[in-house]
Recover the amino acids of this structure.
């Protein structure tokens, strides 16, 4: 290795924790009872300070693999040449908009680049309000759309969670379209029936003096617990929102860029085209980047005389990185890999489910998978204690996982999409052993 550009003396994990508590945002959390100090990443592996490798099944940001050499080179070369802002013409910016929109159905053809998913969702709200001249927003229960004040207001996961201040007047919440645990379950027409619930949310907004500007919905629910939208949900929901004059937003901050395997964009299988698509996390493989893609009509409504300038958004370095990510997904066939390895993982998890009581449902699309733990398969009562114990037991076996869902009882699986069949096999064997160690109480 060449001389490092910066010299940072390594500190012990205990000292880092103590200094974080004293000098950093006191609400920062750390994963695991005994936190990990991770110092290096490569592909699907993270390495701690002692060089121990951990198989990463939870990082959907480093989408094409940690520190992918092509992405790193694209960023480093552009950083060494130039980094400015959108007030100068630059090929990278226009090329990125062209390549991104080439993957999307018409009329999604206008791109706004931001620095995060929150910023993308925030800007999308401004676009929706400018276009509809309305203020109301409908969101799905337990959703998370970002950390800014306006996005906390649109995130039941936050405003109804610890420290939350409750639902704002301009917000209406629809139930999660959970066809396994929700109020409409095990029904072939769950999608349209959940979609029809948008009607009462629209009515609620009207009763409070608001018209809907937008319906925000993830194309698969992340914080909701790795929920796959039932067929027909978005078609029904979008029809109702549009009839009431609102726009429809697909938040693909977690699930875009081929993770679902059978499509590049997760909304595609629902047979809809959103008016606003928001992107983040995987878009820059860890580099801060986000985007809103919308229609020329919606974009035109934003032209009011006020400039939208974003100092870092759309800079040549970010665009170079975004371009490299798109190229790696295409050249390495990663969407297809997500489909193949995802199917193998789902089969393996279902086989494990058949031998270990307490896994109520295994669900997923591509490499976005959830296994829902229950204490009793009949009542489907959530078992968060066991899934948390499994996460710790897997960490001891050097496999990184996490949990999600309103009851925090869903094992979430969303590895970088370079995850191989051999990686999947290793995970399944270790999960089988861990479950054997932590039997159903
Ligand atoms: C669905 C969804 N939308 C938006 C965000 C916010 O993105 P960011 O953390 O990049 O601001 C997140 C982050 O977890 C997310 O999961």
């Amino acid at each position: 290795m060449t001389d490092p550009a910066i010299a940072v003396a390594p500190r012990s994990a205990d000292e880092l924790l103590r200094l974080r508590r004293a000098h950093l945002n006191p609400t920062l959390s750390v994963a695991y009872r005994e936190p990990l100090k991770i110092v290096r990443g490569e592909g699907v592996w993270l390495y701690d300070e002692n060089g121990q490798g951990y198989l990463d099944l939870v990082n959907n940001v480093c989408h094409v693999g940690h520190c992918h050499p092509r992405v790193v080179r694209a960023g480093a070369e552009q950083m060494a040449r130039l980094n400015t802002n959108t007030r100068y013409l630059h090929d990278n910016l226009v090329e990125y908009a062209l390549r991104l929109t080439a993957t999307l159905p018409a009329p999604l053809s206008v791109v706004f680049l931001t620095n995060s998913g929150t910023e993308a969702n925030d800007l999308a709200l401004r676009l929706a309000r400018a276009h509809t001249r309305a203020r109301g927003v409908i969101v799905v229960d337990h959703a998370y759309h970002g950390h800014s004040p306006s996005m906390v207001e649109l995130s039941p996961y936050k405003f109804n969670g610890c420290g939350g201040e409750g639902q704002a007047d301009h917000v209406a919440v629809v139930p999660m379209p959970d066809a396994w645990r929700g109020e409409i379950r095990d029904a072939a027409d769950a999608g349209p029936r959940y979609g029809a619930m948008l009607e009462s949310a629209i009515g609620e907004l009207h009763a409070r003096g608001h018209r809907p500007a937008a319906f925000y919905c993830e194309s698969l629910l992340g914080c909701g617990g790795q929920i796959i939208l039932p067929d027909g949900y978005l078609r029904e929901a979008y029809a109702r929102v549009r009839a009431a004059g609102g726009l429809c937003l697909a938040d693909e901050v977690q699930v875009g860029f081929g993770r679902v395997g059978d499509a590049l964009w997760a909304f595609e299988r629902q047979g809809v085209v959103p008016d606003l698509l928001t992107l983040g996390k995987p878009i820059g493989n860890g580099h801060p980047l986000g985007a809103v893609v919308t229609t020329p009509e919606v974009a035109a409504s934003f032209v009011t005389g006020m400039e939208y300038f974003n100092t870092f958004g759309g800079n040549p370095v970010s665009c170079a990185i975004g371009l490299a990510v798109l190229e790696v997904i295409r050249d390495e066939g990663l969407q297809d890999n997500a489909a193949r390895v995802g199917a193998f993982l789902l089969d393996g998890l279902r086989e494990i489910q058949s031998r270990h009581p307490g896994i109520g449902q295994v669900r997923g699309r591509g490499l976005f998978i959830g296994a829902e733990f229950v204490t009793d398969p009949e009542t489907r009562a959530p078992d968060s204690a066991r899934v948390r114990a499994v996460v710790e037991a897997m960490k001891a076996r050097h496999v990184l996982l996490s949990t999600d869902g309103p009851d925090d009882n869903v094992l979430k699986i969303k590895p970088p999409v370079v995850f191989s069949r051999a990686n999947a096999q290793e995970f399944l064997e270790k999960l089988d052993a861990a479950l054997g160690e932590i039997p159903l109480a």
Summary: The pocket of pyridoxal-5'-phosphate is lined by residues 116-118, 121, 144-147, 218, 222, 251, 253-254, 280 (CB under 6 Å). DSSP finds 14 helices and 18 strands in the chain. The domain at 70-331 is CATH 3.40.640.10 (Aspartate Aminotransferase; domain 2).
